UniProtKB/TrEMBL annotation:
Residues 49-274 form the DUF4349 domain. Keywords: Membrane, Transmembrane, Transmembrane helix. This is DUF4349 domain-containing protein. It comes from Mucilaginibacter limnophilus. The chain crosses the membrane at residues 253-274. InterPro entries: DUF4349 (IPR025645).
Length: 289
């Protein structure tokens, strides 16, 4: 039984060796890969990789002034404003006519702004407290902490393994059968380096999303009346134009009647004939008596 078990183990070892020989790498020293794995497994962190994010929604007296104060506060904490958008739109508008040429427009404007700020994580609470003190009312305040330690460990282990493979390949201990394999490993090495740096940056700097607004502002302004239907000329000019229009209307009526002169003549003749016939009928009964 012991001999059969030994034969099975030897057969498995030969099969494993043959599979490794058919892979994309041919190793000259097997203990190098074991050393790399042991070195990778021994990776430790100096501290946990905690990523902090926060958001704050509040109202202020003046949005523009608050945005300037927040930017100055971010610079004071060695932070950076990565996004700033301020908008204002009219909710209600009314136009009051002052005179023929001018009107007064009264509008109620609503103003709000969005900002995204990156501040050092150790100063996050202090920064949030000072920003909240700038407002007149805090409507919402949130903070989330995400532990990225395992993701960072995974990236670090992959990075160490790829570094070890590249080192062994340069020393000639590992030979690549396909030239494009070297490029693939180097690209993967760069990806892991970027990923670890991205996590380090997220741990070092926290992202804060701010949304703040102010009460509606009523604005009055006198502007030019652009409604041409309201335009009227001076009184005497309009009186002269009216008299001229009356003369023109009278002449137009005369000219229009002149176009029907034949009908007018026929009508006059018919009217005379009818009048004479009517007169004869009224005179005859009187002569009989």
């Amino acid at each position: 039984m012991k001999i059969k078990a030994l034969i099975v183990l030897l057969s498995g070892a030969v099969l494993l060796y043959s599979c490794r020989g058919n892979s994309g790498y041919s190793t000259l020293e097997d203990n190098t890969t074991d050393t790399a794995l042991v070195a990778a497994d021994s990776t430790e962190f100096a501290q946990a990789k905690l990523v902090k994010t926060a958001d704050l929604t509040f109202t202020v007296k003046n949005v523009e002034q608050a945005a300037g104060q927040i930017s100055a506060l971010a610079r004071q904490y060695q932070g950076l404003v990565t996004h700033h958008h301020m908008r204002s739109f009219a909710q209600n508008t009314k136009v009051v006519r002052i005179n023929r040429d001018s009107v007064m427009r009264v509008a109620a404007y609503s103003t709000e702004a969005d900002m995204t700020v990156k501040v050092p994580s150790e100063k996050l609470d202090e920064f949030m407290n000072k920003v909240g003190q700038m407002g007149t009312h805090v409507m919402a305040r949130n903070m989330d902490i995400e532990d990225q330690s395992l993701i960072y460990l995974e990236s670090q282990l992959k990075l160490n393994s790829r570094k070890e493979l590249v080192t062994q390949q340069k020393k000639g201990r590992i030979k690549l059968k396909a030239p494009e394999d070297a490029l693939i490993f180097k690209d993967a090495l760069v990806d892991e380096q970027v990923n670890t740096r991205r996590i380090d940056d997220a741990v070092k700097y926290s992202v804060v999303s701010l949304n703040f607004s102010q009460n509606n502002t009523v604005m009055k302004e006198i502007i030019v009346n652009d409604d041409v239907s309201d335009y009227r000329g001076p009184f005497f000019s309009r009186l002269g134009l009216a008299m001229q229009a009356g003369i023109n209307l009278f002449t137009d009526v005369i000219v229009g009647l002149a176009d029907f002169w034949l009908f007018l003549l026929a009508g006059i003749i018919i009217w005379i004939l009818v009048a004479r016939l009517t007169r004869k009928h009224t005179v005859l009964p009187l002569t009989k008596h």
